[in-house]
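Work Package 4 report. The design task specified in the project plan requires that, given a folded chain encoded as C-alpha cells, an amino acid be chosen for each position. We show below one input record used in the internal validation round.
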C-alpha cells in the first residue's frame, strides 16, 4: 500500500504515523518521491481500510498496490510519465526517434553521423563510449574521449544525447550526457541503480537479456524509490532457443508494460534482431505495438563499423523508417516530429 502524506506534515508527525503502523505489525518506510511525501507499507496490509486511513488529517490518500513494484505501477500513478529531455518529450503523443552508431569511433565519425541522423528525423543521438563486449579483444569504445566527442556533436548540432554508463565511477564523466543508458548487462546491477537514483538525469533502462517483465520493473523501482522519477524502459530482445536472430524481440511486452506501468517504453530493433534487414519491419511493428520511441543503430558506413556493423543501418534506410513510421504513428493517433 502507498500512503500519500499531506505536504505540510512534520517529521515528528511522520514518526508517529510510522510508530502507529509498527504497533499493528506493519512496516512503514518514508520516502520523498518527486516532491511528494510517501509512506510505503509492507506486511499484512489487508487489515487496513484505505478509506479509514484517508480520514487522518495528515494523509491525503492511500492506494493498494499488490504487485512487488509500487512506485512504477499504474495503480499508484495513473497518468503517463513524460520524460523531458531538452525540447523532446518521451512518453507523450509523439514517437521519439533515437539514432546513431553503436560506438563513437572518432570525432569526425560522430560529427558526421550526428548531422545526418538529425537531418533524417532523429530527435536524440545515441553513441556508445564504453562498450560491453563479450571478448576483451574486441573494440572496447573510446571511453572518456568518446564521451567528449559525443558532447561536442551534441553542442554543434543542438541535439540531446544518450550513452551507456559502465559503472558508478563514471557518473561524473557523464555530466553533459542528457540521458544515461543502463545496458542489458547492468539491468540488475543494483548498486549502480541506487547511485543513478540519486542523480538528476533521465535513465534509459534496458531489459536484461534473460529478465522477466517483473524483474525489469523491479529494477526501475530501485531508480524511483531512490528519488529519480525520470526512467525510460527499453525492450531490446531476449535470449531464447532461436539462433536465427541475435535475440528474440518480445514486442508483446510493449502493450503489457504500458498497462502495468506509467513509464515510457522504447524498443531497440537493432540489438533485438542483430540484422540490418530486419530493423525496418521491426521498427514499424514496434510503433504499431504502442512503443513511445525507437533506439536504432545507424552508421556512416556499416561495413567498416568497429562494433555491430551487421545490425547497423545506413542513413537513407533510417530516413525511410521515419517516413513510414510516421504514417503508422498517425493511424494510431500519434506522430513523429
Ligand atoms: C547498446 O545499446 O549499445 C547496447 C550495448 O545494448 P544492450 O545493452 O541492449 O546490449
Ligand atoms: Mn550495439
Amino acid at each position: 500500500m502507498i500512503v500519500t502524506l499531506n505536504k505540510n506534515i512534520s517529521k515528528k508527525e511522520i514518526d508517529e504515523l510510522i510508530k502507529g503502523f509498527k504497533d499493528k505489525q506493519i512496516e512503514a518506510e518514508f520516502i520523498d518521491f518527486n516532491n511528494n511525501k510517501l509512506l510505503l507499507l509492507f506486511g499484512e496490509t489487508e487489515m487496513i481500510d484505505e478509506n479509514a486511513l484517508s480520514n487522518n488529517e495528515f494523509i491525503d490518500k492511500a492506494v493498494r498496490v499488490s504487485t512487488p513494484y509500487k512506485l512504477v505501477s499504474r495503480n499508484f500513478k495513473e497518468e503517463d510519465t513524460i520524460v523531458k529531455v531538452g525540447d523532446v518529450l518521451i512518453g507523450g503523443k509523439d514517437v521519439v526517434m533515437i539514432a546513431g552508431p553503436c560506438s563513437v569511433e572518432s570525432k569526425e565519425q560522430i560529427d558526421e553521423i550526428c548531422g545526418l541522423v538529425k537531418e533524417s528525423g532523429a530527435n536524440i543521438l545515441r553513441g556508445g563510449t564504453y562498450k560491453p563486449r563479450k571478448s576483451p579483444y574486441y573494440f572496447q569504445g573510446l571511453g572518456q574521449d568518446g564521451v567528449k566527442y559525443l558532447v561536442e556533436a551534441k553542442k554543434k548540432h543542438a541535439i540531446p544525447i544518450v550513452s551507456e554508463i559502465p559503472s558508478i565511477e563514471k557518473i561524473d564523466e557523464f555530466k553533459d550526457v542528457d540521458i544515461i543508458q543502463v545496458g542489458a548487462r547492468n539491468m540488475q546491477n543494483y548498486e549502480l541503480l541506487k547511485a543513478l537514483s540519486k542523480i538528476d538525469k533521465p535513465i534509459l533502462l534496458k531489459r536484461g537479456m534473460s529478465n522477466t517483465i517483473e524483474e525489469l520493473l523491479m529494477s526501475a523501482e530501485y531508480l524511483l524509490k531512490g528519488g529519480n522519477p525520470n526512467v525510460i524502459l527499453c525492450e531490446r530482445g531476449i535470449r531464447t532457443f532461436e539462433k536465427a536472430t541475435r535475440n528474440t524481440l518480445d514486442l508483446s511486452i510493449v502493450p503489457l508494460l504500458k498497462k502495468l506501468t506509467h513509464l515510457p517504453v522504447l524498443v531497440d530493433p537493432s540489438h533485438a534482431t542483430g540484422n540490418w534487414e530486419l530493423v525496418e519491419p521491426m521498427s514499424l511493428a514496434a510503433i504499431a505495438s504502442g512503443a513511445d520511441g525507437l533506439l536504432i543503430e545507424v552508421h556512416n558506413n556499416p561495413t567498416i563499423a568497429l562494433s555491430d556493423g551487421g545490425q547497423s543501418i545506413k542513413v537513407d534506410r533510417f530516413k525511410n523508417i521515419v517516413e513510414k513510421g510516421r504514417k503508422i504513428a498517425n493511424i494510431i493517433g500519434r506522430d513523429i516530429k
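Residues 102, 128, 132, 164, 183-184, 206, 236, 268, 271 surround phosphoenolpyruvate (ligand 1) (CB under 6 Å). Validation will be extended to a larger panel in the next phase.
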